[in-house]
Write a structure and sequence with these properties.
- The protein has about 400 residues and is of the alpha+beta class.
- The protein folds into three domains: about 180 residues, Uridine Diphospho-n-acetylenolpyruvylglucosamine Reductase, domain 3 (2-Layer Sandwich), CATH 3.30.465.10; about 90 residues, Alpha-Beta Plaits (2-Layer Sandwich); about 80 residues, 2-Layer Sandwich (Alpha-Beta Plaits).
- Helix content is about 30%, strand content about 25%.
- The protein has 13 helices and 18 strands.
- Strands 4-5-9-7-8 form a five-stranded antiparallel β-sheet. Strands 12-13-11-14 form a four-stranded antiparallel β-sheet.
- Strand 7 and strand 8 form a beta hairpin.
- The radius of gyration is 21 Å and the shape is globular.
């Protein structure tokens, strides 16, 4: 049976619907743009709570570097408004919709926050949670909660807005989000060391990260992805940003340091295009493979990649993030969990069938202590388990 769709138009209406669900049912699957519904475990819900009506920029103060928007506001609208003032969201939000068969540009700010969808610039400015400074949401009791606010240095009490980041809608129905924004760089460029084997290329990225050039992107494409892009048999990409003068100086430093390599430079437009593909996992969009993301220390990236057994992969965050094309089955899951245990990392099954996402641990299995904490937090925010039940962990 197809689940009914409920579309509240106001925060009070949303709160009433959640309160009724907590008292009588049904369990609710929360969506806004719906572009990432297939990321995470299948939700055991009876109805869909569609929050797309909560759209629009509520307040934008460019001089204060703060923006507040309805949770269902499309990212395209937010990024366009910021671009008019030469500003941006520092964490470089990623549009993962096409990975799941959705059209690009459907993602909303709530989806970005809920799934922690950040891009290559995380190595410099942090994750989504480092930019979210306030939010309004409805908890599982049907109570409207305001947390944080537009003052960036607000450190009073428990930082609930950050708890919402990466919670996949399991703790509250976001209605409004406040973020800090920053100036957009005047110029961007990428130095590409071509024809680098994986181990050498990843080592080059780690070396670049220690140089006084303040890189904002450090990625590696193996031959399978580098060659079609004209980047040879493996490519290490180092992005730098800033004023034109600053970028010119940084490029000189990088070219001098890596003079012994086959080096080319990508201009602004090419840099934006390449890193958009890196952020969104675009090279996997038309590939049939299931998709995992593996996070380890950059120094362990090459060994982790080899141990994974895949030939379809690329690296971001100087090797700290590996995108892996691997089947979603028990054998693969066991192999990747052994890697994360060995290197103190974590693996996420990002794209797979409903059956695989229900059968396997989509997210890194929790230790007993952490699992107990997860259940306690869920009970505090959503005691009747009506919000996205089972989206992250079974029976939570």
């Amino acid at each position: 049976m197809t689940a009914a769709t409920i579309r509240p138009q106001t925060e009070t209406e949303a709160a009433d619907l959640v309160r009724e669900a907590a008292e009588k049912g049904p369990r609710l699957e929360i969506v806004s743009g719906g572009s990432k519904r297939e990321f995470g475990r299948p939700v055991a819900a009876d109805a869909i709570l569609d929050m797309s009506a909560f759209s629009g920029i509520v307040k934008y103060e460019p001089e204060e570097l703060v923006l507040t928007a309805g949770a269902g506001t499309p990212m395209a609208e937010i990024e366009a408004a910021l671009a008019e003032k030469n500003q941006m969201l520092g964490f470089e939000p990623a549009d993962w919709g096409p990975l799941f068969g959705s059209a690009g540009g459907r993602g909303t700010i709530a989806g970005v926050v809920a799934t922690n969808a950040c891009g290559a610039r995380r190595i410099k400015v942090g994750a989504v949670r480092d930019s979210v400074i306030g939010c309004r949401f409805v908890n599982g009791r049907g109570e409207i909660v305001k947390a944080g606010g537009p003052v960036i240095k607000n450190v009073t009490g428990f930082d609930v807005p950050k708890l919402m980041c990466g919670a996949f809608g399991t703790l509250g129905v976001l209605t409004e989000i406040t973020l800090k924004v920053g100036p957009a760089p005047e110029r961007a460029a990428t130095v590409v060391a071509r024809n680098c084997e994986a181990e050498a290329g990843l080592r080059l990225l780690r070396e670049a990260s220690s140089l006084a050039v303040d890189p904002t992107g450090l990625a590696y494409f193996p031959k399978a992805f580098a060659e079609p892009a004209g980047l040879g048999a493996g490519a290490a990409l180092i992005r730098v940003e800033g004023t034109s003068a600053a970028v010119a100086e940084k490029l000189e430093v990088l070219r001098a340091r890596f003079a012994g390599h086959d080096v080319v430079t990508l201009d602004d437009d090419m840099t934006r295009a390449v890193f958009r593909e890196i952020d969104t996992g675009a090279v996997f969009v038309n590939r049939e493979t299931d998709l995992w993301r593996l996070c380890v220390a950059p120094s362990e990236a090459h060994e982790a990649m080899k141990s994974s057994g895949t030939s379809e992969w690329y690296a971001d965050w100087a090797g700290g993030l590996l995108w892996l094309g691997l089947s979603a089955n028990e054998e693969t899951a066991a192999r990747l969990r052994a890697i994360t245990t060995r290197f103190c990392g974590h693996a996420t099954l990002m794209r797979a069938s409903d059956d695989a996402r229900k059968r396997l641990s989509v997210f890194e299995p929790e230790t007993p202590t952490r699992a107990e904490l997860t259940r306690a937090v869920k009970a505090a925010f959503d005691p009747k388990r009506v919000l996205n039940p089972g989206r992250m962990f079974e029976n939570v």
